[in-house]
Design brief:
The protein is mostly beta strands and 389 residues long. Among the domains are: 6-131, Sandwich (Immunoglobulin-like); 148-285, Immunoglobulin-like. The protein has helices at residues 295-305, 330-336, 354-362; strands spanning 6-14, 26-35, 39-41, 43-54, 57-69, 78-80, 83-92, 102-103, 107-119, 122-130, 148-158, 161-172, 176-178, 182-191, 198-211, 214-226, 234-244, 258-269, 276-285. A hairpin with a 6-residue loop joins strand 18 (258-269) and strand 19 (276-285).
Length: 389
């Protein structure tokens, strides 16, 4: 048979990039052809094609065509002798940004390099290899290094009987992250209800397929973390609880029919009620963050001051509680003196959470006063009082 004349047809890339090709990159390789006997062919062509395809539409992003072998002037066919032949090729990807390669449930974004052998009186033979393309996203841009915070609260109850308020506030130090990075989460959860609640956080991927007036959306969890139970009347703090990003596709924001977004969901599971939830948008990029390592600690301190329900602030140098020995007896004063030590100066206590000081001053019990004056005076002084009209 004529097809048996082609013993082998292959395609190889040279210097294949592990992270994928991007706009403007050169692509080079070889087409391998092994003939079992003398072979007549009309042409050997190379095509680089690709784009987005979904059920509702198609978008072409790449179309490159090259001729690798053509008949000499005045001839119709090429005669290839038996043996191995190599045809090198090279081309450059377009300078405009390409859409990142992606495969989803309702569509995909794929790029292929294909070699086509045209033969007289025989069907064409072809071989193709996939070309991984990535649209680089730098997370160091100003829009992606800005802290993001959200606050939400919910009244928990049954029918018309309210049991209390549950408050949630969450913050991340920036919007842009890369695969393998850990997201430090700063959160405050206050449980004023009568129920036992559990805080959680998850990274959610949203796939959106658009076209012809139809939209399909898929949401899936790619990573999650769980906090401790919070009893009624208690408060919990996440001071940089980490959630690692698994290997996922970068965000796809420049395609008109397929879009891939991410967000961080911080939520509270409340038995017998809907979840209390805040969503913080994320962008999964490809160029890592080059900021300073001390940023996390600074964000943690700023976050504690941004709590909407936290009305008390810590003074720069906390004052010691007043001595009430002058108004109560020494016996009562000794009996009611606090059992915990007074806080030291701020420089020595910076390693402790700020909320600990706030809670201490907020819930400090009122001083005890005696109805009997322990130091009565023999004579009652009368101060003159004057009014000015």
């Amino acid at each position: 048979m004529a097809a048996e004349a082609v013993k082998r047809l292959g395609l190889l890339f040279e210097a294949q990039q592990t992270s994928g090709y991007s706009a403007g990159d050169p692509v080079a390789g070889r087409v391998l052809l092994e003939a079992a006997r003398p072979l007549l062919c009309k042409a050997l062509r190379l095509e680089a094609v690709g784009g987005a395809r979904a059920r509702a539409g198609e978008l072409r992003c790449l179309g490159v065509r090259r001729s690798l072998a053509e008949p000499a002037p005045g001839e119709d066919v090429i005669l290839l002798q038996p043996g191995k032949h190599e045809f090198p090729f090279s081309f450059q990807l377009p300078a405009e940004p390409l859409v990142t390669s992606f495969t989803g449930k309702y569509g995909s974004i794929q790029y292929w390099v294909r070699a086509i052998l045209e033969r007289p009186l025989a069907p064409d033979q072809s071989v193709k290899r996939e070309l991984q393309v990535v649209n680089h996203i730098d997370v160091n841009t100003p829009a992606l290094i800005t802290p993001i915070s959200r606050t939400q609260e919910k009244m928990v109850g049954c029918c018309f009987l309210a049991s209390g308020l549950v408050s949630l506030s969450a913050k991340i130090d920036r919007k842009g992250y890369c695969n393998g990075e850990a997201i430090p989460i700063y959160a405050e959860i206050e449980n004023c209800s009568s129920r036992l609640i559990v805080p959680k956080a998850a990274i959610i991927q949203t796939q959106t397929y658009l076209g012809r007036g139809k939209t399909k959306t898929i949401r899936q969890m790619v990573a999650n973390v769980r906090g401790n139970h919070i009893a009624s009347g208690s408060t919990d703090t996440w001071n940089g609880k980490t959630l690692k990003i698994p290997p996922v596709s970068p965000s796809i924001l420049n395609c008109s029919i397929i879009r891939v977004d991410y967000f961080l969901a911080v939520y509270v599971h409340i038995p017998g009620a809907k979840k209390l939830r805040v969503e913080l948008p994320l962008v999964i990029g490809t160029i890592p963050y080059h900021g300073f390592g001390s940023r996390n600690s600074s964000v943690a301190s700023q976050f504690s001051m941004d709590m909407s329900w936290l009305t008390l602030t810590l003074p720069e140098h906390p004052e010691a509680p007043p001595n009430y020995g002058d108004v109560v007896s020494e016996e009562e004063y000794a009996r009611h003196i606090p059992s915990y030590p007074q806080p030291l100066d701020c420089e020595r206590e910076m390693c402790c959470p700020m909320l600990a000081y706030i809670q201490e001053f907020r819930f400090q019990p009122p001083p005890l006063y005696s109805e009997v004056d322990p130091h009565p005076s023999n004579t009652e002084e009368i101060q003159p009082v004057s009014f000015i009209l």
